[in-house]
Amino acid sequence: YFSNYYNGLFRYSTDGRLLYRWERGLVPDKIPDANISFLFPRNDSTIWIGGAENGGLMILNTVSNRFTQLTHNNNFSTSLAANSLIYYYLDNARNEWISTTAGVSKLAAATRIINTWREVLPGITAADELVSVQKGADQHIYVAAFGTGRVYRIDPLSGKAGTLLADRLPDTWCVSGFGNEMVFTGSSSFITRYNTLTGSYTQSGFLK
Asked: How far apart are CA 54 and CA 28, in angstroms?
């Protein structure tokens, strides 16, 4: 699958043959947002596609070649946080986390209910983009806000959130998990390893 901002979404065979093209336009026959932030195969016949420019979650049936669309709804607290989606993360419990331009949404595996975090994220503004989501060994969710120096730590059980110490972190845009540690990289010349069990920070300047 390849996307083009102006020409839509393309599906090719492994030998390079064009199999199908979805032009930009309205569902179900066209793709409403060709600025794609993620593309995640759910099963043999379904692909979840994130729209970065208000397309919401675009769900493609690869058998019928038709889309359905999941979007934010102001009348429902259990809808997506926003329609501009940035990042998708599937945790070990099969819960699905989607970062947006207006908070983080979790689609629970057991209930299929969407929970959203925004108001509880300290210092977040309407301009902040949450660009990376990962679960730590402590079962908390770590989310980086692009260009702000902030990394949020969300407790899915209590619904509360806080921030890590900004002066110990690079200007983070990538969060990765390794064992008990979270590793934060970004525009700085150093990386930070955060031990989720002890709360200790270790900085390394090997990128200098």
From this structure: 16
